[in-house]
C-alpha cells in the first residue's frame, strides 16, 4: 500500500480522515482495532455516545465511525429497558446527528433480533421487522434513528458473533469440552455463526468505500454474516470436532428445555445478497471461519 494512504479507511492522510470505533472493548471492537491498529478505539470510559457535546467534540469532518457500542445482555434487557434503550437507541441517534452535522460517515452495527425469528428463508434487509424482545426493539429503534438523522450512514446487521476466546458461545463450548463428558445444546434455533475477525474485515472494506467520500451505491441497510446456517447444536458439535473431541458428546434438546426471560428467535439466518449487491466481498462459509477461530485460540490445529 502506498505511503500516502491510510490502511484503515483508504483515504489520503493529508485529508486527516480517521477511523473511530466505539465499543472497542467488545468482541467486534477488539477485532476491528486488531485489524486496523491505526484506528482510534473508544470505550464507554472514553466516550458516552449519548452525550452529544462529547461526541461533537470528538468527531471531525471526513471521519468514519463504526459504532459497535451496544447493550447486548439480551435477558437482562427485559428488566432494564431504559438502560438498553439509552445505549441501543439514544446513542446511535446522537452519533448519527453529529456525523451528519460534521460531515463524517457512520456505520452502525445492528442485529438479527430486529426480526421476529419466524421466517423459513434467509432474511433480506427489507423484510418486515418485528422484534420479540426488549433488546431487539431497542436495536430497531437505534436503526430508525440512524436512518432518520444521517442520510449517508449505513446499517450492518449481523448475528451470532464470536471470537472463541472468552465470553461467547464458542468460548463456552471450548470450556465445557474440557469440563464435562457430555453437554446438551438447543437444536431448534437456526442462525448464522459469524467470526468477529471476518465481520471486522468486511466492515473495514465498507469503511474504505465510504471513506473515499464518493457514494459507492451501497444499500443503506446490509446484512453481513459468515455464509451458511447452523443450529446452536450444529455449532457446538463443530467446535468439538475442531478441538479433536468426539462431537457425539454434544446432545440435542429443544428450546423449551432452556427457558429464558427473552425469547430466542427460532430462525434468524441473514441473507448476504445485499452485501454482495453493494460490491463487498462475501464472507466465507461459517465452518471454515470457525476452524480458523479455534486454531487461533487453542493448541489444536483443527481437523485435517
Descriptive report:
This protein has 10 helices and 12 strands. The protein is α/β, with parallel strands linked by helices. The chain has a domain of 197 residues: Rossmann fold (3-Layer(aba) Sandwich), CATH 3.40.50.720. A 6-stranded parallel β-sheet has the order 2-1-3-4-5-10, sandwiched between helices. Helix 1 links the parallel strand 1 and strand 2. The two termini are 34 Å apart.
Structure, briefly:
The protein is of the alpha/beta class. It is 37% helix and 14% strand.
Q: Strand count, sense and closure of the main sheet?
A: 6 strands, parallel
Spans of 5+ residues with little confidence (pLDDT < 50)? 1-15
Structural class: alpha/beta
Kindly report the average pLDDT value. Answer: 92
Helix content, binned percent: 25-40%
Could you name the CATH class of the domain at 13-161 and 196-227 and 268-283?
Alpha Beta
Q: What is the strand tally?
A: 12
- If classified by CATH, what would the architecture of the domain at 13-161 and 196-227 and 268-283 be? 3-Layer(aba) Sandwich
- Gross morphology is globular
- What separation lies between the terminal Cα atoms? 34 Å
How much strand content do the residues show?
Answer: 5-15%
Gyration radius (Cα, Å) is 19 Å
CATH level-4 homologous superfamily of the domain at 13-161 and 196-227 and 268-283: NAD(P)-binding Rossmann-like Domain
Q: Which assembly state applies to the chains in this document?
A: single chain
Task: List the total number of helices.
Answer: 10
Strand order of the largest sheet: 2-1-3-4-5-10
